[in-house]
Amino acid sequence: MAYEVHPLTEGFGAEVIGLNLAAEMTPEEFAEVRDLYFGKSVVVFRGQELAPDAQAAFSRRFGGLMIHVLTQFQIPGHPEVLELSNRLDADGNAIGFEDAGRYWHSDISYNTEPALGTMLYAVDIPPEGGDTFFADMAAAYDALPEDVKQKIEGRGAYHSYTINYKSNESDAATRPDLTEEQLASLEDVLHPIVRTHEDTGRKALFVNPGFTYRVDGMDKGESDALLQMLFAHTQEERFLYRHVWRPHDLLCWDNRSTMHHATVYDAQYTRHMHRTTIQGPRPV
After folding, report:
1. Residues of the chain falling short of pLDDT 50
2. Mapping DSSP to helix (H, G, I), strand (E, B) and coil, where does residue 276 land?
3. Which residues of 18-41 are buried (b: 16+ CB within 10 A; e: fewer)?
4. pLDDT tens, 168-217?
5. One CATH from 3.20.20.70, 1.10.357.30, 3.60.130.10, 3.90.180.10 for 4-279
6. Is 99 helix (H, G, I), strand (E, B) or coil?
């Protein structure tokens, strides 16, 4: 299994060229890929040809797969594969979630057991735009002043999918209304502000502007000030990587140590992607 690995930034991220993820891997070969993924936090596997079942099979090697609350955008026969797309069906209805992630967030941090990792496959991409930014939350934690580390150590913050659902809507698209059944499946959850990565042992900030809205045990003013400071800190350029998509990229990121932000693109072009999401443990 010969392939090349190149760094994406000086601190985190890797590009893999020449590895066919649809092919069989020995346990030892898979262990190499797993260590690279969790060690680098963001890994892009270039030039993949992945049908939905092959993507799901590869993703499932890392853990159980999650079903997104927007069940109307599942691929038929593959409920674990979410379509992110601006394509329409014959009746003019959206087949995928177009307005996905155009704000800083960590996938499904609003669940009791949030996503461990996400894998996004570029089926069809626009010639420009639609890039994805990533923030290295472990490096951001390491760079905090000691007094801030002491202030947040042992504290928790609340995450919610619904609190910012409409305010997270971008100017480029409209988010679908949640059904009563979808709303009933969602509850706010308390997670530690600093989590320890189960595989690397590194500490990382686990707050994000998309879903985190209040620090436990603080009044609103103090909580808002602390969160806004942390949000601004994590978005400093020194912690960021901007992914410019190529056709047939499989981009994999570790939600335990990163957050991300999709950017807009010209809607005259098609952007169609398949997403699988790996179940994670409760943060500690």
Report:
1. 166, 169
2. strand
3. ebebeeebeeeeeeebeeebbebb
4. 545 555 656 767 666 556 589 999 999 999 999 999 999 999 999 999 99
5. 3.60.130.10
6. coil
